[in-house]
Structure formats: C-alpha cells, structure tokens
Fold this sequence. Notes:
This protein is of the alpha/beta class. Helix content is about 35%, strand content about 25%. Strand 2 and strand 3 (about 45-55) form a beta hairpin.
Amino acid sequence: MYTTEIELSGRFVDAVLLSRVIDAITKMDAKFDLRETRIGRTAEDAGYARIEIGAPTCERLDEVIDKLKELGATPVDGQPVTLATVSKDGVCPDGFYSSTNIDTYVNVNGKWVPVDDIEMDCAVVVDPASYKARCCPIAVLSRGEQVVIGHKGVRVAVMDRAAEERGFSFMGSDVSSERQKSLMVEEIAREIRAVRQRNGKVLVVAGPAVIHTGAGKHLAALIDAGYVNVLFTGNAVAVHDVESALLGTSLGVHLKDGTSAPMGHMHHILAINKIRDLGGLRQAVEAGVLKEGVMYALVKNNVPFVLAGSIRDDGPLPDVITDSVAAQEAMRKGIKGVEIALMMSTMLHSIATGNLLPARVKTICVDINPATVTKLADRGSHQSIGIVSDVEWFLKELRSYLIKSDECTNDED
C-alpha cells in the first residue's frame, strides 16, 4: 500500500466538492482518510481539506492524484528528490537518505520511479537521465554518482494489515513455543508449493544443527524435489555434511545411533582434507567420492549456494568465500527473485541474510532458541515469523507435506 496526502483550499472547497473527491477516490479502488476539513459558513469563506490517499501500487496512486488534480487538489509530496554527488569513493554526502527494506519510489523530475535492489541501510543512487534508482551499499559507491539527500520526494510503501490478515500471517509475528506447529508447517508448505508453481525462488539459510540432528537427509530430499533454489550457509554445514557422507558421523558422532566414533574428533578434519585434495565439492561429486548429502544434492541439481566463511572456520573448504564483502555480494546476487526464505538454526547467517532481503520476501525462522527469532526481527526483518522447534522435526514435517509419503518411507528406518 502506498499513501500520500492531498490538499484542497479556497472558497470552492465545500461539501459538494468533497463528495466529488471522495467519489473519484473510491471509483479508482483507492482508500482515503479525512485528516482535516474546514468548510466556510458563507460562500466568501475559504475552506480547507487534507486527505490521505492509499492505493495498492505507486502507479495507481499517481493515477488517483492526477484525477484529483482535475478537481483542484494539490499533492503534498509532489516535490522531486534532492540529489548530491559523491565526491569520494565509498563515502556518502552529508544528509544522505538511508534506505529501508520496504518497497520504495523516488520522485525524479516529477516522475515516480521504483528503487531497484531494495535493501536496508543503503544509499539510493539515482540516474536522472535514465530515470533509474537503486540501492547501493555505502562501501561500493563511486565518485560522481548521485545519491538521494533527505526524505523529500521519497515514497515508501506501508503495510496493508487487511491484506496481510487474508494471507500468510495467520501465525503472527510473535515468537512462542506454545503453538500447534503442524498447522504452521502445512501453511508454509502450501506457500512454498505456490512459489514454485509461479517460478519464484525458495531460499534456505541453514546452520550446522541441520546436519548434527540428522535433518540433512530431509533437506537433501527437498533439494532433489526442486523445492530449494538457492542455499546460504557457512563452512561448518558443508564440512559436517561431507563428514556425514564419507564417515557417517557429524562432529564425530554416528548419526544412526548417536554413539561416538573412535577418534571421531578428527573426522571433520579428514573430510576437509579430502575435499581440498580433490579441489572442491563439485570435483568430489564428479570424482564419485561424494555420493550423498546436502552438498551432493546441490551440486547434482545445479542449485547455487554461497558458503560464507568466518574467523572460526577449520580448513576451510575450497568453495568457502573467505572475504566477507565478497560473500555479501554473492548473497546479494543469490537473492534475486527469492519470494520465500527459510532460516534454520543459524543466528548469524539469518541476520546477515535478513539484512539483504526486501521486506516483501516471506521469511520463516526456525530455531530451538526463541532469542534467534527475536533478534532477527529486532534487526529490521519485521516480516519474519518464528517457529520455536527442533530443526529435524521441522524439516521432516515439511518434507512430509511437500513430497509424497511413499517417497519419505525409504530412509525412515
């Protein structure tokens, strides 16, 4: 929903004119809210009205405003944005506008244009000649680019609560372990299936607990079934997934019976060394060494993934991006077209991904720790909903809703 205000002033402002204005608004499927009205007692008295207009798209809002201009209305936010030129690479001019993750338009020479690549905490770069605008991280600004200064001429969408209540938000945005979780997972499965049917993308952000709990087989099955289009994770998930595929353990613990393997503390290092010797995960699959698991399923199905490194990584694997800025850029490319994101058992990767996602992306955070979900929302990802649950249960349940039950029975022993 996009909103703006219009003003009517002068002796012609009377009940008849207001009726015509309201009629025009409602006929164009827009909403209104009378913020202030003053009708003169005599024909000589000046009247005044200020009305908030809301429409589902910025384009429709402009159509409504154009119609109301014919009736004498003046838009309050009709001024173009103020621009300033970047004088030093990676540094914004003073007073620059800092973006939100909510869909935004800017007024460029009287024309409202969408801000592409919307992301929180960025500058908005505008090319007046081409009527283009985009979010740009401060660090990659180039000298000579023009960025938005202040808030004038910026139009940010607002949440349409009524539409939200009709859609995906029956679970609410609060975090609670006292919920009937199967219904929540069923709803998520329906949404994922709908996204796939319209060729949208599903993003999975996963932490090591996905492997440690034995949930890797469920995630691999979802990848094989085409329900995962991109995966973000770190070195640990890939390492322990390979460890599981090669040695049957995760962190040296047998996944089948939970017993510790002799010298199991070495297993993840052995797995890292094997993949490094082969040159990477794809090479391990092509060599026939890596034959199962999450990373195998990703490579086999040509599903892109980003392994973002951290200071605590062992190895790391050759596929890990150890430059955090480069990893961030790879993640930005990966989120193009994403409509729904599943963030499971990883606080840092979830927050990092949430910082990059537009607010329109439906985001589900699954973690045994309620604080993880809370922190994600606190850091700006207000669209996220939380499920306080063991990740193995969640993925097993999600798999059962998305994949036929007879396909799930083979590895339930």
